[in-house]
Amino acid sequence: xxxxxxxxxxxxxxxxxxxxxxxxxxxxxxxxxxxxxxxxxxxxxxxxxxxxxxxxxxxxxxxxxxxxxxxxxxxxxxxxxxxxxxxxxxxxxxxxxxxxxxxxxxxxxxxxxxxxxxxxxxxxxxxxxxxxxxxxxxxxxxxxxxxxxxxxxxxxxxxxxxxxxxxxxxxxxxxxxxxxxxxxxxxxxxxxxxxxxxxxxxxxxxxxxxxxxxxxxxxxxxxxxxxxxxxxxxxxxxxxxxxxxxxxxxxxxxxxxxxxxxxxxxxxxxxxxxxxxxxxxxxxxxxxxxxxxxxxxxxxxxxxxxxxxxxxxxxxxxxxxxxxxxxxxxxxxxxxxxxxxxxxxxxxxxxxxxxxxxxxxxxxxxxxxxxxxxxxxxxxxxxxxxxxxxxxxxxxxxxxxxxxxxxxxxxxxxxxxxxxxxxxxxxxxxxxxxxxxxxxxxxxxxxxxxxxxxxxxxxxxxxxxxxxxxxxxxxxxxxxxxxxx
Length: 485
Hints:
By secondary structure, the protein is mainly α. The protein is built from 18 helices and 5 strands. The chain has a 3-stranded antiparallel beta sheet with strand order 1-3-4, with no helix packed on it. It starts with 8 loop residues before the first strand and ends with a strand.
């Protein structure tokens, strides 16, 4: 029996909470993956190319684990957010010059974030982790917070600008005096590679969207050129030389742009999401279901959610076990089931899900076709299969979160993910530069390590750290204190 609702007022979607949830899921899983104990867990708990017990890097070892998945999810969500952010600036009347300047400003701030963060990581300051090390790391966190925090609008005060400026000056002074165990002080070469990659794809992904925002074919054409560039770089010649060349290798390399294979498909999904957000919706606050009446029942919607996560799980199990043709056949069969479940959309949200799903199947199919190429799917060095399979997975998880949040109206189920997705930079730095220093100064850090040496307790320790961090970030988000670049 179909769900029925009473007439309701027309509203507009002002934020893509499902996208926040996807980003929050990615960042918390990224944090958790960095906290799990080494050597003692099954291979699927680590990067596929760094199996236990030695974790020696083996570039010839193909496979895909959940750990390999989290960074692509974050990159995809970054790409999907680009149309939302830049479209609003265009609507506010920003000139192209001002928008381009803001794009490069963001790249600069991400680069500065990457360099400063790597200089204040506790294990970089001193692997011995003395009390002084913890104090410097904690000081670095508070300086980083004051440098990049976006204060609530209600706190608007000229003195806050002086606090931010003073934090930047203090950060420069700290970098000027800090010394490291192996000698030397500040160096632009000492940077967080993940944030450097984010800086590159944020700039170039934004520019690509800005100049192709009205022409998907042109955007896909750019993706084709990038594909040719990426494939030709494997052979001797000028393309290979250019791919490896950089005027400033500490901040930019052409090879970083290959991660646009995740970001640009994300911008296409972001275009769908933005159009959906602009469409009027009729919502009954006392109902789980949005007006106009849904053709899809609650049972059908829950089946879609289950199917999306099932496809992702099958891919992780099958590709890691190297059951390639079986995984491909089973996955395509499940995708056919999904095609029936997501067919015949009747309103804007169902149409959004249908479009996202068709694109997700396309990218996933492309990734599975590329799987035998380059020796199988690998995170490092990243293969074409890695990019496109993970793009499909990201879209499927986004569909599941959209149903949970925007149709079933159960945002509370994933509220912790939404909060962390809105404030990912604090989540990224919070364990090493906030939680650990506090524990280190209070002498609890060593005690916890010495009493959680088994695999079970090591996992529990990682879970507790991640949950504590998630709660801290959620608290700051609700207080409207955001770290922004």
